[in-house]
Each structure stands twice: as structure tokens, then as C-alpha cells.
From TrEMBL:
Residues 1-58 form the HTH lysR-type domain. One of its GO terms (molecular function) is DNA-binding transcription factor activity. Belongs to the LysR transcriptional regulatory family. This is DNA-binding transcriptional LysR family regulator. It comes from Sagittula marina. It comes from the Bacteria. Keywords: DNA-binding, Transcription, Transcription regulation. GO terms for cellular component: cytosol. InterPro entries: HTH-type_LysR_regulators, LysR_HTH_N, LysR_subst-bd, WH-like_DNA-bd_sf, WH_DNA-bd_sf. CDD domains: PBP2_LTTR_substrate. Transmembrane segments: none annotated. SUPFAM superfamilies: Periplasmic binding protein-like II, Winged helix' DNA-binding domain.
Length: 288
């Protein structure tokens, strides 16, 4: 079945006359008639009964009409989507974001970019790093924002920013009045643990080296859950700066005994062509 067959069939349905349908379709009547005959052969029976008044649908024709109308509608929508994509009326720049990346810098850069390219559309997908890198290699993402270390042979790496980790507690928590929090202070308080934190092993290793052990009463891979627990005074959570919400009941403090920071980068797969809009967006991220 070809799209011109569908179009000619629906034109005949509308005009109930082969001559008028051919004229409306800008095609000769013999060509339209041949296309309808080919469609009838494919479907196994006649679609129209022709008479002096014009033509009318057979039972098969009545059955096929709504189905072929849907096919034509879907085809038109697909073509319109392709045109919008090509003309940058709809540019789905797909960004994979590591699940521990704070939203503040990303959202600010995306909004600045859209002010310059208002017709662009942005898709933000948050997931685990392994899933994001697999999607990047498969072409599902234009770029990935992550802290994971990757091979420069496979990925183009654009450093974006470095951010420190801070201890987050509720106002009124015993740690909240300190100028900085030592590892000994952390060992003496209830911790809210993030198993997916990139600096978790380094932090626990530093504590062990100093003879301390951290105790976590709560564990979650979701920053928002741990922040809410911290806000309620349930314990202390260590978060990168951009993941710390601006909340009246929260206090963030530096870690005193060690430098704890991470580098955030934009990753692109070297075997995938990078569009100019993606390059501009990466430059916008780098302005942070």
C-alpha cells in the first residue's frame, strides 16, 4: 500500500466522483483509477460502486475509510514533525544528567541558551551514569552531564565546573553553630547516607585513616529525600553545593579536615556527529 493510493481513495470518498477527485488531487483520472484498482487488488475486493451519479463506498470501502484516514493523518503529522525539526522549530536536544548532579547550574544554563535560541526544545533525562553512557553511545543523548571518569579516546570531555561538598543540617542541629565540621564531628552525629555519592568512598576512607567511623541511620539514592530528613533534624547529609536547596531551615557547612570536591563535565561520544546547537549549549554550560 502506497501513500498516493491512500490519498486518492480518500479524495474519491470526499468527492464521490473519480473525475472530480482526480482534479482535486492534481492527477489524471486514469492514474487515479489505476491506483484505486491496485489498492482494491491488495485489499481483495472493490472499494467503490460506480454509477451514473458518481460512486459510493462498498462495505469494504466503508470499513477501510476510517483506517486510511488515520494513516493519512499520521503521515501528515510525521512530515510536519520532520519539517519542524529541520527548520529548528523543534530541536530536541537530549541531555542525560547524572542522578547526583544539582539542577541549579544546569537549569540556569539551559534557560540562557533558550533565550538565545527560543525555538530549541530541551529534553532532560536523569539516570544512573552507566545508563546514561550507554544511551550516549547509542545516540539517545546529545550529551551527558556527569562526574564519572571516562576514556578520552571514546568521549569528548568538556570541563564545566568544580564544586565543593558541604555538610547540610537543620537549623538548631548541634553542628549548625560550628564554623566548619570536622571528621570527628561527623563521627559523633547521625549521618544520612547516599550510596551513589561519588565521594562516599573517599570520605569513609579519610574517616578510617583518622580513626573515625561514620554511622548512617538513613540511606537513600534520592537527594530530595535526604534533604527532607535533614530539614526535619534527622541527621547530617553531605552534598555538592549545587544540590543544596535554598531553604530557611537548612544550614550548610564546610568540611574541616579534608578538601572534598568534584569536577563536573559535559560528555559527548566521539563517534557521533555533534550538532552546532549542542556545541552552543556546551559553551553556555561552561559559562557557569
Amino acid at each position: 500500500m502506497e501513500m498516493n493510493q491512500v490519498r486518492y481513495f480518500l479524495a474519491v470518498c470526499e468527492h464521490r466522483n473519480f473525475t472530480h477527485a482526480a482534479s482535486a488531487s492534481n492527477v489524471s483520472q486514469p492514474s487515479l483509477t489505476a491506483a484505486i484498482k491496485k489498492l482494491e487488488d491488495e485489499l481483495g475486493d472493490a472499494l467503490f460502486i460506480r454509477d451514473r451519479a458518481g460512486c459510493r463506498l462498498t462495505a469494504l470501502g466503508k470499513l477501510m475509510q476510517p483506517r486510511l484516514e488515520r494513516i493519512q493523518s499520521e503521515a501528515r503529522e510525521a512530515k510536519a514533525e520532520a519539517v519542524r525539526h529541520t527548520r529548528l522549530e523543534r530541536v530536541p536536544i537530549s541531555i542525560g544528567i547524572g542522578e547526583t548532579i544539582g539542577h541549579a547550574k544546569v537549569s540556569e544554563a539551559v534557560e540562557r541558551f533558550r533565550q538565545r535560541v527560543p525555538q530549541a526544545e530541551i529534553e532532560l533525562i536523569v539516570d544512573a551514569n552507566d545508563t546514561l553512557l550507554a544511551g550516549l553511545r547509542e545516540g539517545e543523548f546529545d550529551l551527558v552531564i556527569s562526574t564519572v571518569e571516562v576514556s578520552e579516546e571514546l568521549y569528548r570531555i568538556d570541563p564545566l565546573y568544580q564544586e565543593a561538598y558541604r555538610v547540610v543540617v537543620a537549623k538548631g542541629h548541634p553542628l549548625s553553630e560550628l564554623p566548619a565540621v570536622s571528621l570527628a564531628d561527623l563521627a559523633d552525629t547521625t549521618m544520612l547516607d547516599r550510596p551513589n555519592c561519588e565521594m562516599r568512598e573517599a570520605l569513609h576512607g579519610a574517616c578510617t585513616d583518622h580513626g573515625h567511623t561514620l554511622y548512617a541511620a538513613y540511606r537513600s539514592n534520592r537527594v530530595d529525600w535526604l534533604v527532607e530528613l535533614a530539614r526535619r533534624g534527622s541527621g547530617a547529609v553531605i552534598l555538592p553545593e549545587t544540590s543544596i536547596p535554598d531553604h530557611d531551615n537548612l544550614v550548610s557547612l564546610p568540611v574541616a579536615d579534608m578538601e572534598i570536591a568534584r569536577d563536573v563535565a559535559a560528555l559527548r561520544f566521539r563517534h557521533q556527529a555533534s550538532r552546532s546547537e549542542t556545541n552552543e549549549l556546551v559553551r553556555e554550560f561552561s559559562r557557569n
